[in-house]
Amino acid sequence: MTLPTVGQDASCYSLVVNHWVCASYWHDRFDTLRDATLQHLEITAVSVALGLLCAVPLALLARRLPRLQSLILGASTMLYTIPSLALFPLLVPFTGITETTVVIGLALYSLTILVRTILAGLQSVSDDVRESARGMGYGSTRMLVGVELPLALPVVMAGLRVATVSTVALTTIGTIVDYGGLGNLLYDGVQNDFKAEIFAACVIVVALAFALDACLLVAQRLMTPWTRGRTAG
Amino acid sequence: MIGDAVSFLLNGANWSGPDGMLVQLTQQLLLTVTALVVATAAGLPIALWLGHLGKGGFLAVNISNIGRAVPTFAALVLLSVGPLGTDVLGPYGRAGLATLVSLAIFSLPPIVTNGYVGIREVDPEVVEAARGMGMTGRDLFWRVELPLALPLVVTGLRLALVQVWATATIAALVAGPGLGNVITAGFYRSNYGKGLGGAILVALIALILEGGAALVERYAVPRNRIERREARMSLA
Q: Which of A107, B26, B110, B126 could form a disulfide with B159 if both were Cys (CB 3.0 to 4.6 A apart)?
């Protein structure tokens, strides 16, 4: 969106006055900001959910087959090496200029963190606990769902927080295929030297990262009440 | 589209000239190396020193988390539209200063965190034994802590290298220098073969850099393992 040529009386964004902090911009362009934020949130949430959905079976597979483990970890590290501005274009021949391209790219990035932390979480369950569960007659599926996964939750949730926060940041690069949420506003702001727009997008994107991180922290506390006494800090 | 990308990359004309890929590739490699050197010179000594003193751990570890939460794109935008501007900086190209500063800032977290953690994770018994042998703080640092921390320090540098290369690509989104321009020019002008060609090139170089760094790391680590064993034997 280009800057208006003539400044209105109370306005702090126009070709004449171009302020970073500008309340009337937030007010006038509320719809633009809301739509970009919602798109950002949607892309982030779907990507991390998709990443988690793929990471759980991959981590279980890697645990069962040690030979596959180095292959899975190696491949996901390799993916993480590819810059985001290159990864999205590399997916375009398969998924086109769509939101799917961004979601798949971001899900692949989150896999790197999630597979590792799920593996680490499962390995953090002590053998004594497994042994006693087995002694109580737990089969392998019931053990996984009833004992191992709940005990792995603190580590897994820590990984999920890291993955979510970095996905919020990376979503901005989706603007290369026109689906970058607040990144679209950043790109537009640079093209038009629109300072109020740039500042607003920066503030919202950082706030979004902190808000989602806080939500996940609260969720973790609620899901793992037994850790509350130990990890007060 | 993939065919277009390959023929774009194989066409020599796209590599030559003042806006050719060769110039942009050199620009981006130069930016990456400079930023990494600056960040290492600024961050590593402080991180190692803090690790040696055992102070400032909260900051050293959390700087990584903060670095991950701030979008590199947003930082680049703020710096180039804001105070640092988009002037050409010598061989670094348009918005050279803004790009260099953001690259250096975003390569700091892995360098600082790994340097600090590397020193802190040296076996306290080894440190105690070294002190018992009468080593001064300086000897302890140079002859015991630093050699034992080296693998983690090198890993931090490798992570920083990957991060810097990725961020240097994004500079193109703020009209900055580097190969990212091939990608943005291709995509924003619907020349998808060109955009995809640029993406393939950027990804390939990222993998080559990572592979090279991993090799260096492997060289640094086994020699260090031997040193570690010797250090333990001679100190135990």
A: B110
